[in-house]
Amino acid sequence: LELEQRLHQAVRTGEFQLHYQPIVALASGQPQMLEALIRWQHPDLGAVRPDEFIPMAEQTGLIHELGRWVLREACQRARDHHLTVTVNVSPIQLNAPDFVEDVRTALRQADLEPTRLKLEITEGAVIRNLQQARRMLQRLTRLGVQVALDDFGTGYSSLASLRTLPLDTVKIDRAFVRDLERAPAQQATVRAIIALAHALQLTVVAEGVETEGQRALLREMGCDCAQGYLLARPALLEELAL
Ligand code: G
Ligand code: G
Ligand code: G
Ligand code: MN
Ligand code: NA
Q1: Which of 116, 193, 199, 205 is the most buried (most CB within 10 A)?
Q2: Where is the EAL domain (predicted)?
């Protein structure tokens, strides 16, 4: 409970930071955009992982306030540094009626072109209620922002069943990338995801790229972009060599 109370204060006391991780085009090696990843520096406990505090923020409803802070911060940084940013969106946020207004407000306050913001939605959030998700994503894309399907492959949905969603990008979950060099079956799966995504005119990002072998294979498979420790670790914007 103490951690939970602390979480409530932490937005105001400035204990959150955004780290950014480049998403790099495989053909050119050029960074295309940055994924914003939240970090909490607790005064006593030190770094608390998002895996621990995001679920807590979701259960307590704080995710809405936290999400607004992430959007505001990421949009301002994108504007100031002429970048495109991607922001992770919790299923709880996606289902909130006010979420579209939160996005609109963040864009307006930062004076950021909507095309400079991409929202990452997990496959799980979408397949739980496809109809509602479609309506929400349509409202968001009408603002001009783009939408990426995050952690793809973990939710056991087929891309074909998602073809009616206004998506721009599919991010292949790092579990598929991890075994790419060892498991031929995994290679076939990734090839199939890329082929289907391209048939649906989606950009494909591979997550968790850690080795040269993985990068080479993904490039050969026609994957558009890669993200992972091989290319750059998440870091403060000031620390990234862009
Ligand atoms: O960066 P890291 O591996 O620690 O992220 C762990 C998890 O936290 C990932 O699933 C990531 O999507 C999620 N996450 C990181 N930043 C945010 C954020 O700003 N909002 C939400 N909802 N999730 C985030
Ligand atoms: O230079 P670039 O194409 O990245 O700029 C695109 C966006 O950045 C446009 O929305 C433009 O209005 C905005 N912009 C251009 N110059 C500046 C500047 O000096 N500061 C800030 N904050 N935004 C700028
Ligand atoms: O769920 P989401 O895909 O948003 O989570 C991204 C998470 O992946 C972040 O916590 C980020 O720190 C982590 N990450 C980024 N690159 C790598 C990588 O190359 N390997 C591993 N294991 N994790 C990574
Ligand atoms: Mn993500
Ligand atoms: Na992911």
Answers
A1: 205
A2: 1-242
Q: What percent of the chain has pLDDT over 90?
A: 81
Q: What are the structure tokens assigned to 38, written together?
A: 């939240």
CA of 170 relative to ligand 5 center, distance in Å: 10
Residues 6 or more apart whose CB falls under 8 angstroms from that of 176 comprise 153, 186, 189, 190, 193, 206
Counting atoms of ligand 1 from 1, which one is nearest the CA of 90?
A: 22
Model confidence pLDDT, tens digit, residues 127-178? 888 899 999 999 999 999 999 999 998 877 777 778 889 999 999 999 999 9
Are 22 and 232 in contact by the 8 Å Cβ rule? The answer is: yes
This model of the complex carries an ipTM of: 0.87
Cβ–ligand 3 distance for 150 under 6 Å, the answer yes
Which two structure tokens, joined as six digits, stand for 90?
């919790």
Check if 207 has its Cβ closer than 6 Å to any atom of ligand 3.
Answer: yes
* 80 Cβ inside 6 Å of ligand 2: yes
Domains belonging to the chain, first-starting first, are 2-236 (3.20.20.450)
Helix then strand count (H, E) for the chain reads 10, 9
Pair of tokens at residue 179: 């075994």
Question: Is 201 in a helix, a strand, or coil?
Answer: coil
Q: Is 70 in the pocket of ligand 1 (CB under 6 A)?
A: yes
Query: Residue 222: helix, strand or coil by DSSP?
Result: coil
pTM for this one?
A: 0.90
Tell me the CA distances in angstroms from 67 to 76, 91, 96, 115, one per residue in order. Answer: 14, 11, 11, 19
CA dist 26 and 220 (Å) reads 9
Q: Which two tokens stand for residue 99?
A: 């979420």
